[in-house]
Specification:
3 strands, mainly alpha
Length: 286
């Protein structure tokens, strides 16, 4: 009896190491793909999402049931093989490319716990699903907030004393004009900041009002910061500084606004956590 228990313990431990190895290789594949395409924002967000999921799995690993069946394991392995093939040959398989992180996580969950055990990973699967949606939604090209961005940016310029006019998506100053295309509308920055907000919601215990407030602040903050960026580019075009315009529009300068947005949002989240901590402390002291 004791020998059987020892064999079972070794088998479970070996299964855990095998799953960790597969998970690590899948993580390396996705991070290397974002690095290869020089998508630094997606690289950082992917790392943060996967680190959060790893932390969640680590906390409850002792309660996880690692019992999978033949069909579920075979299906999971086929999905992983497909991801490996796609990473090697860079096949253009549309949804597979966008949802690759979610497919990898789903396949790993199937191999680990089968169909019946998927509910153990519902939070982690929802987390990585949102990240996959973040990379997929902009490619649909249906969410276009360019008119709103153009109106708000023109309003900001007008309130700061510039002689500005707007016609549709075109913001005009006396000596130059810019057109707010879909790529400059701010939808990508909004989705990136919302991704940070979703991670924050999954990681910390918040009340209902705060769960609504966090994504709202993320979206509004990203929209405002991007509109300020549009104002800056309009001023640079009006001044005839094309080199500076290219830097802030296409170069590393575009990432500065993403960093500013992330920093301000993280400060907001820190304040929210501090507020909850002080509130809980008062309840304990009373």
């Amino acid at each position: 009896m004791e020998h059987t228990k020892n064999q079972l313990s070794v088998l479970i431990r070996n299964s855990e190491f095998l799953l960790m190895g597969i998970g690590a290789s899948l993580t390396a594949i996705h991070l290397s793909l974002y690095w290869r395409y020089k998508d630094s924002v997606s690289f950082v967000l992917c790392f943060l999402f996967l680190a959060t999921i790893y932390s969640q799995i680590k906390e409850k690993r002792c309660s996880l049931k690692l019992e999978s069946g033949f069909i579920s394991s075979l299906l999971g392995l086929l999905m992983i093989v497909l991801i490996y093939i796609n990473s090697i040959y860079q096949l253009n398989l549309g949804i597979l490319l966008s949802f690759s992180p979610f497919i990898a996580a789903f396949a790993l969950a199937l191999i680990a716990s089968g169909f019946k055990g998927l509910k153990q990973y519902r939070i982690e699967l929802l987390t990585i699903l949102f990240f996959s949606l973040r990379t997929w939604i902009p490619s649909i090209n249906k969410i276009d907030i360019s008119p709103i961005t153009a109106k708000f940016s023109a309003m900001l310029l007008w309130y700061t004393g510039f002689n500005v006019s707007r016609s549709g998506l075109t913001i005009s100053l006396p000596t130059g004009s810019v057109e707010v295309y879909h790529g400059c509308s701010g939808i990508v920055l909004i989705l990136d900041t919302l991704s940070l907000g979703i991670l924050f919601l999954f990681m910390f215990d918040l009340n209902l009002k705060q769960k609504i407030l966090v994504p709202s602040v993320a979206a509004i903050l990203a929209f405002i910061i991007n509109s300020i960026r549009v104002c800056l580019m309009a001023v640079l075009v009006a001044q005839g500084d094309q080199q500076a315009f290219k830097y802030w529009h296409e170069g590393d300068g575009s990432l500065v606004f993403s960093m500013i947005t992330a920093f301000i949002f993280c400060c907001f989240c820190w304040y929210l956590l501090s507020y909850n901590q002080r509130k809980n402390q008062k309840i304990m002291d009373s």
